[in-house]
Design goal:
- The protein has 21 helices and 32 strands.
- By secondary structure, it is of the alpha+beta class.
- The protein has a 9-stranded antiparallel β-sheet. Strands 3-4-5-6-11-16-15 form a 7-stranded antiparallel β-sheet. Strands 1-32-29-28-27-18 form a 6-stranded antiparallel β-sheet, with helices on both faces.
- A hairpin with a 2-residue loop joins strand 8 and strand 9.
- The longest helix is centred in the middle third of the chain and has 22 residues.
- The N terminus is likely disordered.
Length: 795
């Protein structure tokens, strides 16, 4: 019996209408979903392979606990676990802003408004850029395990179980079956490896470490390897941090002996390896920590705990988050193949379960790279083996950083946004100096990149970095977290950050001499140029994306002030200022204009910045602004489908908001193709960027559920939304399926079942007691649920 049919049968038993005890009901309704007779390959969310990764980092399997990351290669003879710690970056606390930059602002503006964009850009490059382009994320190094005599192996399999967050390598040598299990525990703050064999006395290997960093490796006791070193200087910022990675080898049976920089295990029954890593980082302005003392404390806490207890508590901590959402998009025989073969065949065949696996893999990656108290997920999550990673593996805030957190709220991982929220509070501190020094403005500003030290200045070059609106985009995420949680205490906590961004734009925006609108100047439309009478140019005033972001900042800050009953004069100022922003415009080709003038270039550029208003914002909808929705569609058609991995991830979400499920599915086929997805299912820009994974996961969720549209009669501060069910379901490729546990704005949890391409049932659970309106096609149902009530709808 299909999973969707089982779920439907369970849900039918729920009385139609209002029901108390939503949480306990959901546990009962979903507790048996994994044991209903489906083929094992469909029940288990496992990436698996019949070959080792060898030397291919993009085939290795990622594990992580938010702070520590490991890439598991699964090589039989010489296994490698490549290691990361999320605070190991180059440099130290620094302020790269230029106090003299503000002296050139008026001159740059004059050149922009007088039409000499090249001179404006040159002035900006020469006098207004930051002192450096930001620091780089680094690698700890690698642990190697050399197993002599294991060359002639059979029965090889390696896998990553998304449900347990445990990677595994299995094989046989000489009739003995060997198993290696790897996980990164958020409970014990250790990466743990367990080696077992089905015959006692069969485990022998030598452990060693290396790193491209400035570090030394010593065997400090018979069973402990220690790698200790310092971070690197970069672009004129001196090194300032120390770090330590410590490996403890615990054997049952056999012997353990230490050399100068390696440890040899002989004839053991089982071996458990514990890996701890720490730096001297305390905060973005404090590096006074002691990494050795931190590792001492970690191992002391772990000493009395058994492997079985560590594994059980790790699994429970992971599943507490991961199991909130289940998804079934259907099953075909393709699901029996190895993961790399399924990827290769996805575009040509029908493997809906692979899309479900990709969706859950995105959720797994977010859990593994972002937890409360850690650093946010960066351009590569937490996984990097290079000294000079692509784009420094920083936080690129003109799309990529934000995309990392698109799936967090809708896929029921709300608390994983804490590192993003904390980072935003911190850039509001460093961004205050940048706003003052570069623009003589109040509030705070951030441009298109940040790093561990909370960089906020313009970097790289004016055509990329001369964009003062990155901090404004972050504000949308702060506000969205409130829309999903309804937590007014949280809103009061982040309101000063929202207000600071709003204040910066009030100070920075100027009246356009021709149109009279309030515009940003100078600015760019991220990483894209235009053609006007003077030729090609980048720097300008008042891009469409800027106006859309600022509209959100001012409107949402005003709503937050109203909810908190503060700053009434500011509320009036913000309302009046919103009315002076440039309106969105439609160009001569029917496209949504990217700039104030109709100077758009018809190309296939990867950025579609001016479609921010369609997604992730709600300023363009097919219901309320159909003319702008059509113009956005024209832009998307002009830009084309095939692009970099992250761009495809964004386009997936944009087309879901246009409610074209078949086109979204075509984009998913491009995204999950071998050109844009590596063997380990990491997103390929190329090279690797994790944002495409998160964009793809968010997009699949948006195909099944959208909640950005406010109910028509809502007050500005009321959390009352339309919950749109199956708004972008493909016509034929996912004919039946189910999803449980998705979240909707206003505080709702939603389960959906469909068959023959039609909604058969939805269960809505209220977590806050707000109104909502259910919508499926042309059918609607308004609800006013109390907290913890649920409603079952069969339209």
């Amino acid at each position: 019996m299909k999973k969707s049919a089982i779920l439907a049968a369970i849900l039918v038993c729920t009385c139609l209408g209002l029901t108390e005890g939503a949480s306990s009901q959901r546990k009962e309704a979903t507790s048996g979903l994994k044991d209903h007779g489906l083929p094992k390959s469909n029940r288990d969310l496992v990436l698996w392979y019949d070959e080792a990764a060898d030397q291919d980092w993009s085939a290795a399997l990622p594990i992580g606990n938010g702070r520590l990351g490991g890439m598991i290669f699964g090589n039989v003879v010489k296994d490698r676990i490549q290691l990361n710690e999320d605070t190991l970056w180059t440099g130290q606390p620094n302020d790269p802003s230029r106090p003299e930059a503000k002296e050139y602002l008026d001159k740059v503006r004059d050149e922009i408004f007088n039409g000499d964009r090249d001179t404006a850009q040159q002035l900006y490059n020469d006098h207004m850029m930051g002192k450096h382009s930001g620091m780089m994320y680094q690698t700890v190094g690698s642990l190697y395990l050399n197993f002599p005599g294991h060359d002639a192996f059979t029965g090889y399999r390696r896998q990553l179980d998304l449900d347990t967050a445990v990677a595994k390598t299995q094989y046989s040598v000489g009739g003995i079956a060997y198993t290696r299990e790897y996980f990164a525990s958020p409970v014990d703050q250790l990466i743990i490896l367990r080696i077992t064999a089905d015959k006692k006395g069969s485990i022998s290997f030598t452990a060693s470490m290396d790193t491209p960093m400035t570090a030394t490796v010593t065997a400090s006791s018979p069973n402990v390897l220690t790698l200790s070193g310092v971070n690197n200087a970069h672009e004129g910022v001196d090194a300032g941090m120390t770090y330590e990675c410590r490996v403890k080898i615990l054997n049952q049976g056999g012997t353990v002996n230490a050399g100068d920089d390696s440890i040899t295990v002989r004839d053991a029954d089982t071996v458990t390896i514990q890996i701890a890593a720490a730096t001297s980082f305390v905060s973005f302005d404090d590096i006074s920590g002691d990494p050795a003392a931190r590792n001492d404390a970690t191992f002391k806490a772990a000493a009395p705990r058994t492997y079985a207890k560590m594994l059980a508590e790790h699994t429970a901590a992971h599943q507490k988050l991961f199991r909130r959402v289940s998804i079934d998009l259907g099953y075909t025989e393709n699901a029996k193949a190895t993961t790399d073969l399924r990827r290769n065949a996805f575009a040509a065949g029908n493997d809906p379960d692979f899309a479900a696996l990709y969706f859950q893999y995105g959720r797994y990656l977010l859990i593994a790279s972002s937890r409360p108290g850690t650093q946010p997920a960066n351009l590569q999550g937490i996984w990097n083996d290079q000294m000079n990673p692509p784009w420094d593996s920083k936080y690129t805030t003109n799309i990529n950083y934000e995309m990392n957190y698109w799936p967090a709220e809708v896929t029921n991982l709300s608390e994983l946004t804490e590192p993003f929220i904390t980072s935003t509070k911190e850039v509001a501190v460093t961004g205050t100096a940048t706003a003052r020094n570069h623009y003589d403005c109040g509030g705070w500003v951030m441009h298109h990149n940040t790093d561990l030290w909370r960089l906020t200045v313009p970097v790289d070059a004016a055509q990329y970095g001369g964009w003062p609106t990155g901090g404004g985009w972050l504000i949308l995420h702060l506000w969205e977290h409130y829309l999903y949680t309804g937590d007014t205490a949280y809103l009061a906590e982040v309101y000063p950050v929202m207000k600071g961004s709003a204040q910066f734009f009030l100070d920075y925006c100027v009246e356009h001499p021709t149109y009279g609108w309030l515009v940003t100047a100078p600015t760019v439309s991220p990483e894209h140029g235009y053609q006007d009478a003077t030729g090609g140019a980048w720097m300008t005033a008042g891009t469409t994306m800027d106006s859309q972001i600022i509209r959100d900042v001012w409107n949402n800050t005003c709503k937050a002030a109203e909810i908190l009953d503060v700053d009434k004069p500011l509320q009036k100022q913000l309302i009046a200022s919103v009315e002076k922003l440039p309106p969105m415009q439609i160009g001569k080709r029917g496209q949504l204009q990217e700039w104030l003038e109709d100077v758009d270039v018809a190309d296939n550029h990867r950025h579609v910045s001016h479609l921010y208003g369609l997604y992730p914002s709600d300023q363009i909808t097919v219901e309320d602004t159909p003319e702008f929705a059509d113009a956005a569609k024209t832009t998307l058609i002009e830009r084309g489908d095939l692009s970099t991995g992250w761009s495809l991830g964004w386009k997936v979400n944009l087309w879901t908001r246009l409610k074209d499920g078949d086109h979204v599915y075509d984009l998913l086929k491009l995204l999950l193709h071998s050109d844009r997805t590596y063997p380990n299912m990491f997103d390929a820009h190329p090279p690797f960027q994790i944002d495409g994974n998160f964009g793809g996961t968010s997009g699949i969720a948006e195909m099944l559920l959208q909640s950005h549209h406010r109910m028509p009669d809502t007050k500005p501060a009321e959390l009352a939304f339309v919950i749109d069910l199956l708004p972008a379901l493909p016509d034929k490729t996912w004919p039946e399926g189910s999803v449980t546990g998705l979240r909707a704005r206003g505080g709702f949890e939603v389960d959906i079942v469909w068959k023959d391409g039609k909604l058969t049932q939805a269960v809505i659970r209220s977590l806050q007691g707000n109104r909502c309106q259910l919508r499926y096609g042309q059918q609607t149902k308004s609800l006013n649920l109390k907290k913890n009530q649920s409603y079952t709808w069969q339209p």
